[in-house]
Amino acid sequence: MALTFFDANVVVGRPRKADLFTPLATPAELDHYLASQALCGALVWHWSQTETHPASGNALVEPYVDISRNLFACRTLLPPATDEPTGLPNGLSDLSPGAVRLFPESHRYLMNRVVWDDLLDRLTEMRVPVLLSTEHGVDWGRIYDLLRDYPELTCVICDVGVWSMDRYTYPLLKAYPNVHVETSLLALEDGGVEEMVKRFGAGRLVFGTGFPKRYAEAAMLQLTHADIGDADRQAIAADNMLRLIGGTSNG
Amino acid sequence: MAEKETLRERFFRCGKLDDCPVYDLHGHMGPLEGACLPRCNPEDMIAAMDRAGVRLTVFCHHDALFAPDIGNAINLAEVRRFPDRFRAYCGINPNYPDQVARDVEMFDDNRDAYVGFKFLADYFQIPITDERSAPAWEKANTDHLPVLLHTWGGSSYDGPQLVRTCAERYPDAQILMGHSCHGAWKEAAQLAVDFANVYLELTAVLDDRGAVDLFVREAGSEKVIFGTDTPWFNHHYYIGALLGAEMNDDDRRNILYRNAQRILGDMLEM
């Protein structure tokens, strides 16, 4: 079965600190990545969204966006109390189609109703997915706090960690119907994808690679040969995330 | 036509390849305190191995590593249940020198199951150079056995400088640097260049893009060993990472099976 992949976890731009991996530093390099992996699209965020400021980061991600080709932005918000600009000229309507990433560690805020007030209620109503990366400063306590206060929020937990995190993720998947898990590191856990599909259904997983920090082929080969049905495989590979952000696999 | 296809094309199409078997030289077995492992019993591990074409896994059971009261008996029992699919490392915990002495003394009686020793110094908090581990090192050095070390960049128990000391002290032991001194990638590659008996092992390496590319570039694919920490990490994930790294298919074959076959040698026939 030929799978169509949509990558929900791609970071663009150059990070503050150079690493071994080669970054995707231009829109042309993102295009090359998509073509080389035969991806039908991607949801991208920019390093500056966490390492500089949401306003500059949200501006820097814009050149990579092309909704006609299924290239969507994951933009970043700050809590409302400080009234800081976040580079969204049309406000929350700029978020859709697309998604949001929150960085509570680097941006120094808590994740609860006291901090976010009704802003996350509005995202809940808009069904804009909120991506939370445990690799980028969202610890499990913060995720539990956030969902306790916003139980209907559409949420995607990314980069779940190199150790099995099932003892953290299963209670969330059971308690909150709009919680999803991105697979770039879940795929690393032997049997992790299969067990999650068996317990909660394929609709709760979305495919991602973590490229360019991780090898795209790693999560792709795992899903290609995972011990699950073909319909579930395709749902995870692209369909689930495209449904969440309002795109189509045809671009 | 098949011979004109790349390993990448064939692994994506088939999932496993008869002409490119996989030898996993860094495995464990059984449940673990810090993680839920869905496929940790030997039967499920073998099913996972079959899906990816893993011919043999060399492991040290979690109980053997973390429960001194259980010790290595469980390693021997599981290899003897599945002798075509598993070999074991004799786990060495130098916190208990009396047990180390017994394990080394019993090693030759269990050569059908053992291929070498496993050290986990960061967890046991005793440096790999400590005298309490010496009986195992000396046995490995005399018999040219593999020693799978847990190694980590910056560690005062199993960091690069300590590996260098062991490589100098035991030149005939086959030192597999588990995790390749994680994070200290260039120092690890240099150790593999400097010492014929030191190898870079890939567990917990392949979720960082670029490290194995550097190893092949600096030390050569003949010095890189495939391992997954199975049942922690998925074989296809790791094979996929190798398919995405900058190297050729000959390098990938070295890493996936040729180097392991060379290191294990006659022990595969026992």
Give a short synopsis of this structure.
The complex is a heterodimer of chains A (251) and B (270). With 251 residues, chain A is α/β, with parallel strands linked by helices.
CATH architectural grouping of chain B = Alpha-Beta Barrel
Q: Which structural class do the helices and strands of chain B define?
A: alpha/beta
Would you count the extended β strands of chain B for me? 8
SS field, number of helical segments of chain A: 12
Give the tally of structural domains of chain B.
Answer: 1
From the N-terminal CA to the C-terminal CA of chain B, the straight-line distance is 37 Å
Count the helices of chain B. How many?
12
Strand order of the largest sheet of chain B: 1-2-3-4-5-6-7-8
Instruction: Name the CATH superfamily classification of chain A.
Output: Metal-dependent hydrolases
Helix content of chain B: 40-55%
Structural account:
The complex is a heterodimer of chains A (251) and B (270). Chain A is an alpha/beta fold. Chain A has an eight-stranded parallel beta sheet. In chain A, α7 links the parallel β5 and β6. With 270 residues, chain B is α/β, with parallel strands linked by helices. Chain B starts with 6 loop residues before the first helix and ends in a 6-residue tail after the last helix. Chains A and B meet through α10 and α11 of A and α1, α2, α10 and α11 of B.
